[in-house]
Amino acid sequence: MALPSLRERASDxxxxxxxxxxxxxxxxxxxxxxxxxxxxVSGLRGTYRRDIRPALSRxxxxxxxxxxxxxxxxxxxxxxxAARDGLRLEVTAIDPDARAHAYATSLPPLPGLTFRRAxxxxxxxxxxxxxxxxxxxxxxxxxxxELGGLLFDSERxxxxxxxxxxxxxxxxxxxxxxxxxxxxxxxxxxxxxxLTSIRRSFTAGELRDAVPAGWRVTRxxxxxxxxxxxxxxxxxxxxxxxxxxxxxxxxxxxxxxxxGHPPGRPGATDA
Length: 271
Ligand SMILES: C[S@@+](CC[C@H](N)C(=O)[O-])C[C@H]1O[C@@H](n2cnc3c(N)ncnc32)[C@H](O)[C@@H]1O
Fold this sequence. Notes:
It is built from nine helices and eight strands. With 271 residues, the protein is α/β, with parallel strands linked by helices. The chain has a domain at 43-169 and 201-231: Vaccinia Virus protein VP39 (Rossmann fold), CATH 3.40.50.150.
């Protein structure tokens, strides 16, 4: 297997599933295969146990938003685990892509789980809020303006904390994924898009430099980055944006992202 240069982010590389004209059957199988890949590489179970479960209660209902939910398996897993633990959790999963929304809603419904075809900026405009906001494998899809918009929206949507999880670019991640998936997933875009995703992904240092103050980057096994923001205990509700970027449909940070910190200013700290 040829190893491409992973020195820099391949921001121009395009995933097949992001092409609106890609083969719909293979795309459907890709959404289905996300469940297997996420179970192997997302580290979601650890994130649930360590960061989400302690925030939930048996007595009081909590809310969680999954941004960029794709085929919906992350939202389904979180809703299932919380129910199994006897915790009250309402999960909302959003994705603006009609194909992802159609796939996610074609599966049997789960109590406490709602799928919506929407962007994070739509929910901000509605004034929606959630105790916990998460995403998985979304950051590497975004350009700088879209990343700024997503983080800006996340701060407004989260009452308690935000956890954006993604792959970390690196040779071992690329080789491991390439070899581990080589005989499988022949009928979906999982292998090709997974390798492209790794080429598009951030390193921990790059992500720290790309996010505003208040956001923290941690590295988790296997080859994961978790970008976290905690709502300050005494903070007033953050203002909703007045600008949506007509090109991306995302919120456009037009003032300070966090009180006192200009958007895009490197300031994330190591955990
Ligand atoms: C690779 S998919 C990840 C799917 C799923 N989270 C998973 O782990 O299997 C990335 C998704 O993010 C969505 N997306 C990108 N920006 C978004 C935004 N601002 N709000 C909601 N969804 C967004 C895209 O439409 C795409 O379906």
